Amino acid sequence: MSVLYHCPHLDESRRPPLPSSYPSSSTSFTPLHSLYFCEECDGVRCNQCVAVEVASYYCPNCLFDVPSANVRGDRNKCNRSCYACPQCATALQIQPTEKMENDQMISGAPYSLICTGCRWSSKTIGWEFDKATGIASQLAKLDPGQAAKTEFEAIKDHLETYMSSSNPEPIRTSSKVPTRHISHLTQMAAKALHRDVPGLAAAKAKGKVRATAGSRSGGLEKAHTKWDELSDYVAKDAWRGGNDSLGIDQLSEMERPEVAALSKRWCSSWGRSSLSSSVLPDRILLHTKLTKRCPHPSCRHLLIQPDAKSVRFKIKMVALNYLPAVEIGRRRRRQDKGPGSTPMAPEEIEQRQRERRRTKAKAGDEEDEEMDKALERGAVYVYQLAFTNPLYDPIQIRLTQPYPPKDAPPINHHVHIPTQHFTVSALKEAWAYDEDDEDDDLPGLEGASEVPSDEGVSTVGGTLGRRNRISTLGTTSSGLREKRARGETGVEKKANMTKVLLEVEVLPDAKGDVTFDLEVRYTYRADAPAPNKEEPTSKSSPNDELKTFTFWVRLNVGKVA
Amino acid sequence: MGAFDPLVTYEKGTYIETDTGNKVSRKAVITGATNIILGGKSIIQSGAVLRGDLRRYTAGQHVVISMGRYCNISEGVVIRPPGKIYKGSFTFYPVRIGDCVTIGQNSVVEAAQIGLGVEIGKDCIIGKFVIIKDLAVILPETVLPEATVVPPMTVWGGNPGQLLDSLPETHQEMVEAKCKGFYSRFRAA
Ligand SMILES: [Zn+2]
Ligand SMILES: [Zn+2]
Ligand SMILES: [Zn+2]
Ligand SMILES: [Zn+2]
Questions:
Q1: What keywords tag this UniProt record (chain B) (predicted)?
Q2: Given Cys at both, which of A446, A547, B60, B170 links A526, Cβ 3.0 to 4.6 Å?
Q3: Is the ipTM of this complex over 0.95?
Q4: Is the overall model pTM greater than 0.95, yes or no?
């Protein structure tokens, strides 16, 4: 059982998605609560297509906001006192030493790190501290990764001397391109990225050939492309040291718990011991809060802007506040005369469908069933679909099934929508509903008169600058009466929710999941673009226009037994 | 949302409804009730244990457990304040629970702070002095060791509990709708 919403991933054709019989279409469907909505483009956006930037960094343990300027220097890890247990990854606690002094318990230095999850203690690796704060800076002195860090810095400095020019020579075609020809690579990268890449100084390489390289590979002087000028790097001692000097023979002789599991080592910053007794704790990785933008190249509007200080968002353009929520529930099985086991000819199916369209099911014909029970072949199920309106004005919905493409694989079911057109009342404050609860005729439906205030709109979910979607539609009382006369079978309305029926006939030869798409088109009244974009007027002026928005949902109603 | 969620009924008279709309089972064990504050419209189900009696032994009034609105404490949940030795003597510290907090069946909670909209699954053990920030989700059967800090909008699971995932930006709305929905569906038969 699921209802997923379609994201067009910037496809502007507004064509329905491929049906579920094409597995590739599944990547375009996600739950409503994970989708965004760009007002500028009037389109649904998803996590796969939004542009993401880091807004802020914080430590998930001490919750400290790390200034982004420090993040690189701190190597994306908390530089205060946050370490993860090398055995179970729980955040370590700082524990003072307790001793008796003059009949009094005194706690103080030395401090150690202990794990409240598995009782591991940093004393086992000889880590003890004079102070209870700034463990990372205290450790910097004895950190065994220091040698490797120094080595890395040195090799980086060495290479950086070549990173001055971003103006490499034009590419010369050659059959022999030395793999170490870095300026050539830089140029290729610049070409691929359509921008300058800070590359190795190609100018220095001009006409010069490194003697060693030239003599080793001979004949290179004749090639058009040449070696960059790159002096030798003399390694420091880091690679030789380290405490991981155990050979494979020694490791194989040991018991399993003595050898550190790969899962405990692969996140380590530096090559470390394979003995579980000497695996060192690592600083805890920082987390990020993300800013998300509309991915459309000519739009790039902010969809999500987090607040570094709280769980609120300064900007939150989510589809939940724009598209009606669709839910499926209350499954009933229609008691049909004929047994469903005998396969039916296509004409017969057509015939039965037509019959069903004409005759309305009477009460007592249907039997309630659990939603998760397996579906039976040949059976007809009647579901309720609930549409909840997130807007402060009524909307009108047209519910259809999109036409499948010509050569679509065969389907295992038929869908019939008895009521294709219906309205959903406006969202209101909770107290406003209480009075109407018993009443099926929601005054909201009559109501062109009800215009929400600006405040009422902008406070919802912390959304800023949300455009009012004021709708008056054809929902005057006469319009309602008309609809009544037409007979909306099985339509239930309560507050800002309307429930309609949906019939699904499982074909006699069906197998697997019964999944189908529905096209939902809703009409709302939108403000004409206000002269001041920041502050859209909420008054229902004559400039208001009716607008429609179409989206697709994918329903999975269960598996055939 | 929750259009098809069924009513959750209890036998009439088995729950006490307070002026502020709290619904407290007569079968819940609540000790030291004067040290417990319920924000209103919260539900304490049968068999839940709230240890308001474990208070700090100094003079004056002490709030031991404070709980916000629209919380749901399921059957068999134990909430007790965390305690430790401080300056030579054992002391309890208060538990602060925000709005819209759901705690699943048989979980044992000794946290110091549970933020708004936190959802704790069933059969969890939340260790002493744990701090769970707003809108976090603790999956069923998770064990959070003493003093674990759970950042906002994250999902934790396992033993010992680990950070597994983060939640979508809409999580607050979803949680609030869920908690308010549950309260309105929780009625006497
Ligand atoms: Zn997308
Ligand atoms: Zn856009
Ligand atoms: Zn930290
Ligand atoms: Zn541990």
A1: Cytoplasm, Cytoskeleton
A2: A547
A3: no
A4: no
